[in-house]
Design goal:
The strands form six sheets. The protein has a six-stranded parallel barrel. The protein contains two helices and 34 strands. The N and C termini lie far apart (103 Å). It is mainly beta and 453 residues long. The longest helix has 17 residues. Helix content is 5%, strand content 46%.
Length: 453
Amino acid sequence: MIKRFVCVAQAAALLALTGVPALAQGETLGLSLRSATSARAGSDGSLPQRGFEITFTGSARAKDYTFTLKEKDSGAALGTVDAAKGDSGVFLPADYDIAAPKSYLLEVTANVDPQRAGFERPHTVSREFEAPFSCGCPSGTAGGFLYGDGETVPFAVASPQQLQHVNAHLNKKFVQMADLDLGGYANWTPLGGNDLDSFTGTYDGNGYTVIGLTCAGRDRVGLFGAIQGATVQNLGVVGANLSTPRGMAGAIAAECRDSALRRCFALGGQFVATVQTAENPQSSAGGLVSQPMNSTVEDCYAAGITLQACYAGGLAGSFSSHAGPDYSTVRRCYAIPYSVKAYGTNYAGTINGSMNYLCVIDGIGYQNITDPSLPALSYIRTVSGITNSNSSAISGIYEVTAGQQDTFSFLSPGGAASAWEWGSADITGLGTVAVPVLKVFSGHPYTLSGVNA
């Protein structure tokens, strides 16, 4: 009898020291989660905080809960949040990888009331999971988006595969989150156009660039094949190599209808549209865009690019507009092409190869003074009502001269309200010349150094 009493006392003492777990044996809280965003800004200060929305079924024993997200491989904690008793959902802020799916570990600790610490103890359950796509695509989809919904919050583009995946969501909003190298694509599939619908959404390059773009063999070649009713902004393309046997070539976009390009640039590369034939009388190539129609191009530049087509221009191959109140507009732009050549008796220009119908142009094109094949035109300011005219018919000549900064006075570089600041270009025969560059790229700029314009 005495021995049995001692055993019961020992068991009671052990229970007091350890307590029962705050979760019953086998209780999992019914966890489920999806990627989400909160109303507050994230760590980069510009986009909503990313994280995971977690739903769960509470335990009768727990006082409250602590949710912690860790990287599976490193064990590094990415975020933590508490939830009260009676809650059934919580947002866990975490700067998880948005470039590619990874495995994570979610740890949920059921906490106990301090007054019952001797009878109950905290208990933790863990669940391993892979970050789900936020775009609704099935697991395993190449380049699926891991942040945003494409509407109220733009999809985040953080890898070349995600950039190519834009073709699966051509009417959505996007924001680029890093400089992207497309060198892994031997022949890039342009975003929109050709065999696809036109891109009709919004793409914000966010001050980042795309390098290593190679695209050939399609009617419309460029980063974007065709855009319509779209906006592309704050984006740079460096060193593109474009070739089309039939149609249009442009670094940012080939065909551009009823759209807007703002604060974009193209630097270096070679763009060739096929020689003129009876079947293809109007191929065009532009440093930034091939054929903008009823579109707006603002605060953009193109430099150091070799272009050849029926209509070739340092900034655009051919500007055009429909008859009526709408027209194409170019404001605060310039171009310094390396070489611009037109096939046969067609037109080439340092800003554009041709303009049809109503256009308003406000920009500068620099004549390559080492290449007499370029037309005399190099400076256009507010020209409107142009009908079936090519750029070389418009008077006003500027040549690049060392220190000729007043040439760019219309851009107001460095001004508080201007999109521009001063940079420099190394130009053959002149040395280093001051030229404007876009402020939005200041955090990770590609300079114009080495451009043989």
